[in-house]
Write a structure and sequence with these properties.
Length: 718
């Protein structure tokens, strides 16, 4: 946790009551301005170390701005313990060490964190760096504060060696799964450390910046803490890409008056909303360094309005859409820029309307429209939600079956906690964590079989393989295929937001995944499970890729040859009999009346008498040949089931077929039409005499109103 350099602008001073932009009526989160000042090299007034006795006052004032009734006694008590325990310790910049926990606490106070979080922030390094024990923290401040402090306490290198860093993050993420405030403190801790990284060796700066980029920034994004995420991005940008950073810094400095263009449009927008009777606050929001860099790469030369965006704050959700309507009526909208994150919030709690409008002079301004509450959550994410375990108005604590319920625990975090349990190896965990956090967008798919969980959250680009392991765990080893939105689909199918998925599992417990599944798995959970099975079954990975399975038609020919005989006119005695196979258009079975026709290659296809294809062959001059059923009762048949759509219909039909001792060779389901669904099954029957009973069993399935033998239309090319 220790950070190691001085910063020209102290947090206490920059966030003081007289800081520019501070309004008494509504607390403003000004971390962006503080970070911007630090990056631009602003000079500070008297050093913070000269005012240490009053330092906690800045935290108290920032805290009271968000929580007017907060009890500050516990903060003062925590400050006294932190200051006394860190006394005599100094950061590498020469500052008293207490400035670090104070700065971390002030960052969280500006974001609106509640008292318990701030108390833990003041004490977050005491157990790690001083003689204070976790039991002392628990005795003095309670279990929750002790849990948060323990969550952010690093593991010792002396015990874990090179695995200390990944195992520390594992410990921290597991703690975050139980209380997201753990990660809030860690992010604020890393932000202050990044602000004060200047005296470190360049190689150590780069190492810390890379971990921040690969792990902490994605976590800040996923937890919705944009105020921390954007400043961390700028600080990492300055260290890892100094040339691009300097070019962007110079570009911003050269366009210091660019805000005037947006200011003019902001006045026009304010006037339009005033005339419409919509109470709104219109602000100019400068872009941070990385945002300017990205826009420049995307658009090339920048105009004045490209250096910022307009932020419109209103009171109610309905007002957001009213503002959108007025803007699109009175200005020229750029429809390609419109996004509705209110109706469909991002997975990190973010809600806002995004649009862009063109002013009469041609300047285009991007506009964000949100309520004050949405803005607070957009900036502070989970920090703005307060204590997820606070008592409900009815006096209950929100617990179910003795467990605390955390409403802020998102799907991505649950997935991460699940797969990390399967990765005891620190290197595998560290690699998988980087890969997981690199996937910064999420989709939701729905299970068609009604199983739990009904909704599955997956990263963008996930496939049916990922859905199988998310839904069924290790049982997904036996996944045979999937239906996506009612259609049969390969396991490699990429899923999209809102898709309905049904995973088809083998009943054979010995079934396992193919090595090729790794090419389609995007989630660490799927990759770890597949890799583990393949390592436990090395023979499965050694199947030669160049030895494909024989096609089903070859098997059918071989089987049908034992039960069908053809008599070719003029055939010599003792000649090899021709290959005989039932036609796929009508799939004859004993005791159907049948006829045969010689086709290309000299083989004979057998049709039911009256089959449309057989009639077409006769009209084209094909001479029929005599065919007979042999002694073997086994047969293959294609049935079509017509039904009304309902959940679990496919599972019930498959169960009815299996109950008759019949094997499914293949199956297809057509997309529902007017709530009606058509299923086509190719089945292998041990005895043709079973066919009537099988069709009756299928008709008895609720929702099925017809089962018949397949009769395909004749092909004009015969």
């Amino acid at each position: 946790m220790s950070a190691e350099a001085t910063n020209p602008v102290s947090d206490a001073e920059a966030a003081g009551p007289d800081a520019p932009g501070r309004r008494r009526g509504r607390p403003r989160i000004d971390l962006r301005r503080l970070g911007r000042a630090a990056l631009l090299g602003a000079t500070a007034g008297p050093a913070a170390r000269d005012r240490l006795p009053d330092a906690i006052g800045h935290v108290a004032e920032a805290h009271r701005a968000h929580h007017p009734d907060a009890d500050l006694a516990v903060l003062r008590h925590a400050y006294v313990l932190a200051e006394s325990s860190h006394r005599g310790q100094f950061r590498k910049s020469g500052e008293p060490y207490i400035t670090h926990p104070l700065a971390v606490t002030l960052i969280l106070a500006e974001l609106g964190a509640e008292t318990t979080t701030l108390t833990a922030a003041l004490l977050h390094d005491t157990v790690e760096d001083t003689d204070v024990t976790l039991d002392q923290v628990r005795h003095g401040f309670g279990d929750e504060v002790a849990y948060l402090v323990d969550g952010v306490t690093k593991l010792e290198k002396v015990d874990y060696g090179a695995a200390a860093e990944p195992e520390t993050f594992r410990k921290m993420l597991v703690a975050t799964g139980n209380d997201v405030r753990v990660m809030s403190i860690k992010l604020a801790d890393r932000l202050h450390n990044m602000r004060t990284l200047g005296v470190m060796r360049p190689e150590k700066q780069a190492r810390i910046a890379k971990v921040t980029r690969d792990v902490l920034i994605p976590l800040a994004e996923r937890l919705g803490v944009q105020a921390l995420k954007t400043e961390l991005e700028d600080l990492v940008f300055a260290i890892l890409h100094p040339e691009e950073y300097e070019a962007t810094r110079a570009l911003i400095a050269d366009n210091a008056g660019a805000g005037d263009a947006l200011g003019t449009i902001a006045e026009q927008v304010s006037g339009v909303l005033r005339e419409a009777g919509i109470g709104a606050e219109v602000l100019v929001r400068p872009r941070h360094f990385v945002s300017v860099h990205r826009v420049r790469l995307k658009r090339g030369e920048l105009r004045g309005s490209d250096f910022g965006r307009l932020l419109v704050l209103v009171g109610e959700d309905a007002d957001c859409y009213a503002v959108l309507g007025e803007l699109h009526t009175c200005f020229t909208p750029v429809m390609s820029e419109f996004k509705d994150f209110i109706a469909a919030p991002k997975f990190n709690l973010y809600q806002s309307l995004h649009t862009a409008v063109a002013a009469p002079d041609g300047a285009v301004a991007e506009v964000l429209i949100r309520t004050h509450r949405m803005h607070k959550v957009a900036e502070a994410g989970v920090v703005a939600l307060g204590n997820p375990y606070a008592g409900n108005p009815d006096g209950t604590d929100g617990a179910e079956d003795g467990e605390r319920v955390d409403p802020t625990r998102p799907g991505w975090l649950s997935r991460l906690l699940d797969w990390q349990e399967s990765t005891p190896d620190p290197d595998t965990f560290w690699t998988s964590l980087h890969a997981d956090l690199a996937q910064d967008r999420e989709i939701t798919v729905f299970r068609a079989d009604g199983g739990a969980p009904g909704m599955i959250s997956l990263p963008l680009g996930a496939t049916c393989v990922d859905a199988a392991y998310a839904a069924h765990g290790e049982a997904a080893h036996g996944c045979l295929g999937a239906r996506v939105n009612g259609r049969l689909a390969p396991l490699s199918t990429v899923l999209h937001d809102g898709d309905t998925v049904q995973l088809l599992l083998a009943q054979d417990a010995a079934s396992g995944p193919s090595p090729q599944w790794l090419d389609h798995a995007r989630t660490p959970a799927a990759r770890i499970a597949i890799t583990g099975w393949l390592q436990a079954h090395p023979e499965a990975a050694k199947v030669p890729a160049a030895a494909p399975r024989p096609p089903a038609s070859v098997t059918a020919d071989r089987r049908s040859g034992t039960r069908l005989r053809a008599e070719l006119p003029g055939a010599a005695a003792g000649a090899t009999p021709p290959a005989v196979r039932p036609a796929g258009c009508c799939t004859p079975v004993p005791p159907d009346e049948i006829t045969g026709f010689v086709v290309r290659g000299g083989s004979v296809t057998v049709h039911r008498t009256g089959c449309a294809s057989a009639d077409t062959m006769r009209r084209h001059g094909r001479a029929p040949v005599t065919v007979h059923w042999g002694d073997t009762a086994e047969c293959r048949v294609t049935l079509v089931a017509e039904s009304f759509g309902r959940p679990r219909l496919l599972a019930d039909l498959t169960e009815a077929i299996a109950g008759e001792g019949v094997a499914v060779v293949s199956a297809t389901v057509e997309p529902p039409s007017e709530q009606r669904v058509r299923h086509t099954y190719t089945l292998q029957l041990p005895d043709a005499a079973q066919l009537p009973a099988l069709m009756r069993a299928m008709r008895d399935v609720p929702g099925v109103y017809d089962v018949r033998r397949a009769r395909h239309p004749a092909s004009p090319g015969l």
